[in-house]
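To illustrate the input format used throughout this study, we show a single complete record. The first block contains the structure-token representation of the backbone; no residue identities are included at this stage. The design step must infer an amino acid for every position from geometry alone.
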């Protein structure tokens, strides 16, 4: 199914092709390529606004995920009953925030890929509200990024590596 990437900001120049290529591979690794997925790029002002509404945190952030299928267990693949339900949800990437957080030697598109992978894991029921949940999410991210790295030659580390 489709991967829709929308750039709704003008602060950071974005090339969609590198991220699209990597996210398509990640979807294949996770076996969810038959599901629609939206990725939306936002600046700090707009990601902060959405973060304030949905998480009650009036600060910019790197990623917000809005699953189409709620209450999935970690790693559970949705079982749609209707064709219109082949949708994972939307991932909002705070690309300005991500750019500002990039370390000197980090590749921006690698960081976008890692952040999108983190968001995709959230759409599949993974969370990091406790150490046990974080461990499951970290292991999932690590496995996916290791396979992505094997396929692309990149060296990617999970976003959630230092949470607990």
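Output of the design step:
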């Amino acid at each position: 199914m489709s991967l829709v990437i929308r750039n709704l900001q003008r602060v950071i120049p974005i090339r969609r092709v590198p991220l699209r290529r990597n996210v398509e591979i990640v979807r294949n690794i996770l076996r969810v390529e038959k599901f629609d997925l939206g990725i939306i790029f936002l600046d700090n002002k707009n990601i902060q606004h959405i973060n304030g509404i949905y998480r009650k945190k009036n600060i910019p952030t790197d990623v917000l995920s809005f699953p189409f299928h709620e209450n999935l267990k970690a790693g559970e693949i949705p079982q749609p009953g209707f064709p219109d339900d082949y949708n994972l949800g939307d991932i909002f990437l705070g690309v300005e925030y991500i750019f500002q957080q990039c370390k000197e030697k980090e590749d921006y598109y690698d960081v976008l890929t890692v952040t999108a992978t983190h968001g995709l894991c959230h759409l599949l029921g993974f969370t990091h509200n406790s150490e046990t949940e974080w461990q499951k999410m970290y292991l999932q991210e690590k496995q996916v990024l290791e396979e992505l790295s094997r396929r692309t030659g990149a060296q990617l580390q999970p976003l959630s590596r230092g949470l607990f």
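Structural context for interpreting the output: The first strand starts at residue 3 and ends at 7. The chain is about 45% helix and 15% strand.
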